[in-house]
Write a structure and sequence with these properties.
Layout: E1 3-10, E2 13-19, H1 24-30, H2 40-56, E3 66-67, E4 73-74, E5 81-87, E6 90-96, E7 101-106, H3 110-114, H4 116-119, H5 122-138, H6 141-144, H7 148-164, H8 171-174, E8 175-181, E9 186-191, E10 196-205, E11 208-214
Antiparallel strand pairs: 1-2, 2-6, 3-4, 5-6, 7-11, 8-9, 9-10, 10-11
Bound molecules: coenzyme A.
Length: 215
């Protein structure tokens, strides 16, 4: 039962990260309704993500999940909001009875560092280059590899994208990251499509970054 990280955010909202060590049969035995996925490892990731939904809320109604045109899975009557992410051998899910949610996990990689200009505005690159020395003073993990911070900022924006759920988000224009608070493990964000001031929460694990929004 390798739950890797679990967080009861409040009475109505729970988050979990699962380290996948089980076989497909284990998950299939626990997840009655799921999408057919051709690639075996992606299928395992998909099943683990779905498995987490009922792990977090035992009465989560798998049979009511629908897939929007944007490919976002959802429950039509909104009795639960949820979001799923998978990467490597990890799956993450956040489920809430009351708030819209978005979650993302990423394994830090140089690829994200190389495409920074595509998802970070000039202002954001300046802000975070300036904040990095101070942030690294309080959390040296942000410096342990050159690409932890870019991966975190990418993951933060992916979590906002999933929280919004309606697609067509320009990461540089619509998802404006303002400040990182290393003590609270939080990033301030202005999402200009809905003029929402969001707090993106994050955790840094060894070789895994987690970001989520519940608002
Ligand atoms: C949809 C997207 C967020 C998935 O992210 P990913 O890193 O490839 O994969 P993840 O494992 O983190 O997430 C996959 C899960 O997200 C969920 N998902 C898929 N589309 C979604 C959407 N439009 N909104 C919310 N959630 C979505 C699904 O639950 C999916 O898992 P499942 O099919 O097993 O249920 C991503 O492919 C994407 O489109 N990002 C936006 C990219 C972009 O617009 N960039 C522009 C600036 S560079």
């Amino acid at each position: 039962m390798p739950i890797f990280y679990q967080h009861q955010i409040n009475d109505n909202t729970r988050l979990g990260v699962w380290k996948i060590e089980e076989t497909e049969e284990f998950f299939k035995g626990n997840v009655p309704h799921h999408r057919d996925v051709t690639h075996p490892h992606k299928r395992l990731q998909h099943l683990a993500g779905r498995f987490l939904l009922q792990y977090l809320f035992p009465y989560f109604p798998y049979e009511l999940i629908e897939i929007a045109d944007t490919r976002k899975p959802f429950i039509p009557d909104e009795r639960f909001h949820f979001s799923i992410s998978h990467c490597g051998d990890y799956a993450a899910a956040i489920v809430s009875k009351t708030s819209r949610v978005g979650v993302d996990i990423e394994i830090p990689s140089e690829k994200v560092l190389k495409i920074q200009d595509k998802y970070l505005s000039k202002e954001e690159r300046e802000i975070f280059n300036n904040q990095l020395p101070a942030a690294a003073n309080t959390d040296s993990r942000l410096l342990t590899s050159g690409y932890s911070l870019p991966t975190l900022l990418w993951s933060a924006k992916e979590a906002v994208f999933k929280w919004y759920g309606a697609g067509e988000v320009d990461f540089r224009k619509h998802t404006q990251l303002k400040q990182i608070h290393t003590g609270e493990e939080m990033i301030d964000c202005l999402f200009t499509k809905t003029q929402s001031e969001l707090q993106i929460n994050y955790r840094l694990f060894d070789k895994l970054v987690l970001a989520w929004v519940a608002s």
